[in-house]
Amino acid sequence: MQHRMPQQQAAGRGPDDMDVEAHLSAELTAVVAGARRRALRDGDRQIDTAHLLHTLLESDPEVRAAFGSDPQVARLLGYLVQRSIGYGLRWQGSVEDTGAVPAVTGDGWSPAAAGAMAAAHGRAAVRGDRFADGTDLLAELVAGAGSRAVEVLEHAGVDVPRLLARLDGAAERGVEA
């Protein structure tokens, strides 16, 4: 049985409907702060799913372990660094819109990122935890078809469906990915 909260359901939810950041572990709160700094440094108007993915990979060993290989993580971080220095220029100044959610949130989050944050909390709640952690957020970022995080994952050669199945399987067993 799958315990995932569909991202499309949660995607429209942001800080107006739920204080997403109040439901994060201390580690994930630091990830959000890092993603916010990265967005500002990159000149982006909103935190998007690629900002969250980049900061998660840099700061959370459990997230890195979910990928299963150091070369894959290194390749992925390389793509994310390229994004910071030019790869993401085509995204700069635009709102991340997967087409599944409203295009504007006005709260500093892209709609896809706000949805992933809310869904990560839902994932933790189903597990009986009060706070979402890095692997909860990673699972929701990976589930976000058409998001910038998924685009980066695919460019880095990550088998996105396999990664999501591994994360969902670990959640169902109650173990780390």
Could you characterize what this model shows?
The protein has 177 residues and is mainly alpha-helical. Helix 2 crosses helix 3, helix 3 crosses helix 5 and helix 3 packs across helix 8. The longest helix is centred in the N-terminal third of the chain and has 17 residues. The radius of gyration is 15 Å and the shape is globular.
Structural class computed from helices and strand pairing: mainly alpha
Largest sheet: none
- Which range best describes the helical content: under 10%, 10-25%, 25-40%, 40-55%, 55-70% or over 70%? 55-70%
Instruction: Quickly count the helices.
Output: 9
Count of beta strands: 0
Unreliable segments of 5+ consecutive residues:
1-17, 100-105
C-alpha Rg, in Å? 15 Å
User: Percent of residues in beta strands?
Assistant: under 5%
Termini gap = 17 Å
Descriptive key words:
177 residues, mainly alpha, disordered N terminus
Tell me briefly what this model is.
The chain is mostly helical. The chain has helices at 7-10, 26-42, 49-59, 61-66, 70-84, 111-127, 134-143, 148-155, 160-173. Helix 2 crosses helix 3, helix 3 (49-59) packs across helix 8 (148-155) and helix 7 (134-143) crosses helix 9.
